[in-house]
TrEMBL record:
Gene responsible for this protein: gcvP
EC category name: oxidoreductase
Chain ranges passing through the membrane: none
Taxonomic placement: Bacteria, Bacillati, Actinomycetota, Actinomycetes, Mycobacteriales
GO molecular function list: glycine dehydrogenase (decarboxylating) activity
UniProt name for this protein: Glycine dehydrogenase (decarboxylating)
Quaternary structure (record): The glycine cleavage system is composed of four proteins: P, T, L and H.
Chain ranges of the Glycine cleavage system P-protein N-terminal domain: 7-430, 465-722
Length: 939
């Protein structure tokens, strides 16, 4: 038989599916659809606009043509995006390696030590280079990092002022995103040329400057930092990490915060992304950092172990009081950047920085007299009155993209890939554009650029950055780290709400092709017809799938899609004169990002109760609507709910809100339960975000990248985010199409599945979740079910009663699963003391059964504890996970070594996963916060 791509993507084959459906108690997938979904929303239309399914090889050919139609020019546009030479060992063993890209966010640290170590290296790299003590493990891009820096300054500072002062020479896209994010929070942005060291009159809570500036100018910001501090304002400096190998880092100049991007450390420009932004602070502000922070702690045997630190700051726990809504970050790209630094080491980075600077200096010498700023690192601003357009056109004809600043100015940025030939070609493009009286390009130099090397402190001295400079060493380091982790290449990752499905190789292949990877986000549009075609196709396909009218692919994660969608709602109300609509209703079961995003757009969060059966309590909703009447802006629901159930009253819920003048936001993270079966844009939603890194096969990358498109009905379309290069466009990220280079993944998925494949995937995911629910119910009761006792694409296993009776906790079960070689399901979300299992359509019956077997065996172990065979404090569950090292030497536990590591029910033929550390003490690490590589003597 010839197998289609859908047959490869969907785990269970025909016979297996029949067995699954049999247990579920339905005769066919169609019958399952009718049994599980409310008839009122069941709607198979929309997908007819999708092209018929193509094979893997057909799709690769189509993508190759699209990639070839793009022009890979020599990019010298700059503005925060630079060409970079990714070491091939990092391309093959990291960026294109499923052991790295299919991993999940390291919430189960015992089986995530590899990527946690890599992220700790990232944090160390950023803190070293910026002269700060603490960095988080990545922001979404430089512009959003600047916005997070802005709110951090406001949180951390003592000033009561609502004014932020920014230097004129910030990147234009940074300014746009700052104003998008400032406006709903009532922050007023004042822009001025601060290079003279003077501040404008008045009080400010913070000051934002950048080095080098958009113009390439290097300013010593010390006087501004001192003046700001005297005024009671804190200071954030945007800084280029490569430049910081040469110039004094802002942390040593008294800056409070540093932000920027790590793109040029080996991560291709990708027409805008993805790449890792960064944020770093001094120790006293560590608790104010948004996003994920890796820290060092100890395990049950007292050994050093890594885990996410200070998680109580995050939206999962703090919700509307969280420091930020950021959830999915840019882990995979942060790791690439960290490994780039490890591979080159301090001396290698210095050599690259000096070469880049020398190329810029050579151009400056050639253009003596027209270079505007004498102090530069890699970027020059050149004055050519009236001649800028012709210079840019001339350069373009020799394959080089320069930056057209205005009619009189050209920007030139050098990078790691700039050669002497490029320098010559750039100078030639100026040969006719130079005003008379200027020395002949190539004539006697008088501008040298001076020495910019003011940095005196060492950096990257830790063994992480001195031990892996050969390819053999790097190859083995990457392997050693990834061997410590459970990713999808080892076993299923049954994470409710996170949809860890297959990331097919054919979907992944194109992302590193130069035609997609090496295009600058601000390149002329005629350079990118292939990319734009992928983008328009996807916008159309996702509109059809969701039933909305328009889609923006700009948001870099689900949280950013939420932000963009809520912002659209806010602006819609304001435009209609509904200035009082400031209340956002959110059910108690919602994901933490919902409340955090609502707060960031200036909405007040009101929680709506859930009923005993998990559904939104419509009586409470009616009461809340009455209470807030004309203040109602919107409701944010998740569908199917985070309880894994298709609520039957969703249409009524939407109508109640609409009747009261509110808008309905449907969180689309659970779209894997809807594709091909129901469309949120048609059953009541006004706006949704989708998570392409969940439903649409972009891999999780160990915690990012993601893409969180926002989809709207036509009345909200005018409020979608605009072009970040246009001030006031309400852009939410630095690039118009966000993380454009990974969109081919989703494009390929939809193209290969076709309408029927997509629908079958959804139904198989629902079938598998119901199969697990039926088979595990007697061991771990399923908490919520809908009509006909059906769940949607995930199910919640309730351990609370078992825990109360036996003392065995969800933690114990989650960690014990690692001994069985499985990644734990989602723990204690959305209900504390439960596990949420989402098998997805990609797991075959054998793997589902293996997981069920492990869970059943664990239940039998719990019964042994209940029966008093093992004490609560010392049993294989509480002792889990078990390392190889813990078997050596003394063994004084009431269970054997065999039970510890080869428990009953574990098929030895599967291959044993050996966790690298034992149970980690998270609280210890939070009390003794260490967020960079510990010194050697700590090993
Ligand atoms: C994953 C998720 C989000 C957040 O998406 P990120 O990409 O991590 O920002 C929001 N809501 C729900 C229900 C989710 O599962």
């Amino acid at each position: 038989m010839t197998r289609s791509f859908a047959d490869r993507h969907i785990g269970p084959d025909r016979d297996e599916l029949a067995r699954i459906l049999d247990v579920v108690g339905v005769g066919s997938l169609d019958e399952l659809a009718t049994a599980a979904l409310p008839a009122s929303i069941l709607d198979g239309s929309g997908l007819e606009v999708l092209p018929p399914a193509a094979t893997e090889h057909e799709v690769l050919t189509e993508l190759a043509e699209l990639a070839h139609s793009n022009t890979v020019a020599t990019s010298m546009i700059g503005l925060g995006y630079y060409d970079t030479l990714t070491p091939p060992v990092l391309v093959r063993s990291l960026l294109e390696n499923p052991a790295w890209y299919t991993a999940y966010t390291p919430y189960q640290p015992e089986i995530s030590q590899g990527r946690l170590e890599a992220l700790l290296n990232f944090q160390t790299m950023v803190s070293d280079l910026t002269g700060m003590e603490v960095a988080n493990s990545s922001m979404l891009d430089e512009a959003t990092a600047a916005a997070e820096a802005m709110t951090l300054l406001r949180r951390a500072g003592k000033s009561k002022s609502a004014r932020l002062l920014i230097d004129d020479d910030l990147f234009p896209q940074t300014k746009t995103v700052l104003s998008t994010r400032a406006e709903p929070l009532g922050i007023e942005i004042v822009s001025a040329d601060l290079s003279g060291g003077e501040l404008p009159e008045g009080e400010f809570f913070g000051v934002l400057v950048q080095v080098p500036g958009a113009s390439g100018r290097i300013v010593d910001w010390r006087p501004v930092i001192e003046a700001a501090h005297e005024r009671g304002a804190l200071v954030a400096v945007g800084a280029d990490l490569l430049a910081l190998t040469l110039i004094t880092p802002p942390g040593e100049q008294g800056a409070d915060v540093c932000f920027g991007t790590t793109q040029r450390f080996g991560v291709p420009m990708g027409f805008g992304g993805p790449h890792a932004g960064y944020l770093s602070v001094h120790t006293k502000h560590a608790r104010q950092l948004p996003g994920r922070l890796v820290g060092v702690s100890v395990d049950a045997d007292g050994n050093k172990a890594y885990r996410l630190a200070l998680q109580t700051r995050e939206q999962h726990i703090r919700r509307e009081k969280a420091t930020s809504n950021i959830c999915t970050a840019q882990v995979l790209l942060a790791i690439v950047a960290a490994m780039y630094a490890s591979y080159h080491g301090a001396d290698g980075l210095l050599a690259i920085a000096r070469r880049v600077h020398a190329r810029a200096a050579a151009i400056a010498v050639g253009l003596d007299g027209v270079v505007v700023h004498e102090n530069f690192f890699d970027t020059l601003l050149v004055r050519v009155p009236g001649g800028a357009e012709s210079v840019v056109a001339k350069a373009k004809s020799s394959g080089i993209n320069l930056r057209l600043v205005d009619a009189d100015h050209v920007g030139i940025a050098c990078d790691e890939a700039t050669t002497e030939a490029h320098v010559t070609a750039v100078l030639e493009s100026f040969s006719t554009g130079l005003p008379s009286g200027v020395s002949d390009p190539g004539g006697v130099p008088s501008v040298t650029g001076g020495s910019i090397e003011t940095r005196t402190s060492e950096f990257l001295t830790h063994p992480a950055f001195t031990s892996h400079h050969t390819e053999t060493a790097m190859l083995r380091y990457l392997r050693r780290l990834s061997d410590k982790d459970i990713a999808l290449d080892r076993s299923m990752i049954p994470l409710g709400s996170c949809t860890m499905k297959l990331n097919a190789t054919a979907e992944m292949e194109a992302i590193t092709w130069p035609g997609f990877a090496r295009v600058h986000p601000y390149a002329p549009v005629e350079d990118a017809p292939g990319l734009l075609r992928v983008i328009t196709d996807l916008e159309g396909w996702l509109s059809a799938i969701t039933g909305y009218d328009q889609v923006s692919l700009q948001p870099n994660a689900g949280s950013q899609g939420e932000y963009a969608g809520l912002l659209a709602i806010r602006r819609y109300h304001l435009d209609r004169g509904d200035t009082h609509r400031d209340t956002c209703l959110i059910p108690s079961s919602a994901h933490g990002t919902n409340a955090a995003s609502a707060t960031m757009v200036g909405l007040r969060v009101e929680v709506v109760k859930c009923r005993e059966n998990g559904d939104v309590d419509l009586d409470d909703l009616r009461a809340k609507i009455a209470d807030h009447a004309d203040r109602l802006a919107c409701i944010m629901i998740t569908y199917p709910s985070t309880h894994g159930v298709y609520e039957h009253e969703v249409a009524e819920l939407c109508a109640l809100v609409h009747d009261a003048g509110g808008q309905v936001y449907v969180d689309g993270a659970n779209l894997n339960a809807l594709v091909g079966l129901a469309r949120p844009g048609r059953f009541g939603g006004d706006v949704s975000h989708l998570n392409l890194h969940k439903t649409f096969c972009i891999p999780h990358g160990g915690g990012g990248p993601g893409v969180g498109p926002v989809a709207v009905r036509s009345h909200l379309a005018p409020y979608l985010p605009g072009d970040p290069l246009e001030q006031g466009s309400h852009a939410v990220s630095a690039a118009k199409y966000g993380s454009a280079s990974i969109l081919p993944i989703t494009w390929a998925y939809i193209r290969m599945m076709g309408a029927d494949g997509l629908r079958k995937a959804t139904l198989t995911a629902i079938a598998s979740a119901n199969y697990i629910a039926r088979r595990l119910n007697e061991h771990f009761p399923v908490l919520y079910t809908g009509e006909n006792s059906m769940v949607a694409h995930e199910c919640i296993l309730d351990l609370r009663e078992i825990s109360k009776r036996t003392g065995v906790t969800v933690d114990d079960v989650a960690k014990r699963l690692a001994d069985y070689g499985f990644h734990a399901p989602t723990m204690s979300f959305p209900v504390a003391g439960t596990l949420m299992v989402e098998p997805t359509e990609s797991e075959n019956l054998a793997e589902l059964d293996e997981f069920i077997l492990a869970m059943t065996a664990i239940r039998a172990e719990i019964d042994q504890v209940a029966a008093g065979v093992w004490p609560v404090e010392d049993n294989p569950l509480r002792g889990a996970p078990h390392t190889a090292a813990c078997l050596v030497g003394e063994w004084d536990h009431p269970y054997s070594r065999e039970v510890a590591v080869y428990p009953q029910g574990l098929d030895p033929a599967r291959g044993k996963v050996w966790p690298a550390v034992r149970r980690i003490d998270g609280a210890y690490g939070d009390r003794n916060l260490v967020c960079s590589c510990p010194p050697l003597d700590a090993y």
